[in-house]
Specification:
By secondary structure, the protein is an alpha/beta fold. The chain has 13 helices and five strands. It has helices at about 1-10, 15-25, 30, 35-40, 45-55, 60-75, 85-105, 110-125, 135-150, 160-165, 185-195, 210-215, 230-255, and strands at about 125-130, 155, 170-180, 200-205, 215-220. Strands 2-1-3-4-5 form a five-stranded parallel β-sheet, with helices on both faces. Strand 3 (about 170-180), helix 11 and strand 4 (about 200-205) form a beta-alpha-beta unit. Helix 4 (about 35-40) packs across helix 5, helix 7 (about 85-105) crosses helix 13 (about 230-255) and helix 9 (about 135-150) runs parallel beside helix 13 (about 230-255). The two termini are about 30 Å apart.
């Protein structure tokens, strides 16, 4: 996640110098506090703090803790697949890559958001999912599972304004899915639903806040760009993980399965 934040966040020249130093000496965050990093990069301590806040962290310590987790995870599962990889390489590597996705997704989870979302799902008479491209197949699968436990759910790849006008806003909970957070079709769908006072949950990456800012709640997926062998496949895996958490919790509540 931090690698992508470095690449996508607009930075000043001083901030670029800090990032370049971190990329050149990746262990510097592990070994140094904000004051020491400032001295190493010839900037002031407040500049270091401002950079971490611009990246979305509460401060240097919050940034440092996240960085250390990602650093350790990367070195534990530094898996490379290429055109020369054999079937044995792929068989051995995929479970580790999948686990990497699950751990990164788990680090983005907020328990309170899941609890509120599950309560919204229990209260709703209808659950709608909006997604397109590869994400659409994931929400179709979720709808099938929800319908089997008595929760009426359906999937759309675009929003029908006529359909939205036919239901009461309080009766329908909508999920809008975009791994980038800026898919215009999904952003427009969320905006229209919110305009009609319908409750909307985003399932999205953390790098672009466009979709999250429109929705009532956001469940974040691992939308990192560095995964192999296919980022599209792995976005779906992260979405699948989040949806299954919701569905299994609902199953336990509705049919009293033991934990």
């Amino acid at each position: 996640m931090i690698k992508e934040l470095f690449e996508t966040t607009p930075l000043t020249n001083q901030e670029k110098r800090i990032v370049e130093y971190i990329q050149q000496f990746p262990e510097c965050i592990i070994n140094h506090n904000a004051k020491e990093l400032a001295e190493l990069t010839s900037v002031s301590s407040p500049t270091i703090i401002r950079l971490t806040k611009k990246l979305g962290f509460d401060g240097y310590l919050d940034f440092q803790l996240t960085y250390v987790k990602e650093y350790n995870l990367h070195h534990q599962s530094n898996i490379q697949l290429s055109q020369d990889s054999s079937i044995d390489d792929i068989i051995q590597a995929l479970p580790q890559i999948y686990n990497h996705v699950f751990i990164e997704t788990q680090q983005l989870m907020k328990k309170e958001t899941f609890i509120r979302t599950i309560n919204y799902m229990l209260q709703a008479k209808q659950i709608d999912f909006y997604a397109n491209d590869n994400n659409y197949s994931e929400v179709q699968s979720a709808c099938l599972k929800l319908n089997t436990i008595g929760i009426h759910a359906q999937a759309f790849n675009t929003l029908s304004q006529h359909y939205v006008e036919t239901f009461k806003a309080q009766d329908v909970l909508s999920f809008v899915v975009s791994h980038s957070g800026k898919n215009q079709t999904m952003v427009d769908a969320a905006y229209y639903l919110r305009k009609k006072r319908s409750r909307v949950i985003a399932i999205t990456g953390i790098l672009d806040p466009t979709l999250s800012l429109i929705c009532n709640e956001s469940l974040y997926i691992d939308a990192s760009l560095h995964h192999l062998p296919s980022s599209i496949m792995l976005y779906g895996l992260s979405i699948h993980y989040i949806l299954d958490i919701l569905i299994i919790t609902l199953m336990q509540k509705k049919i009293k399965l033991p934990y």
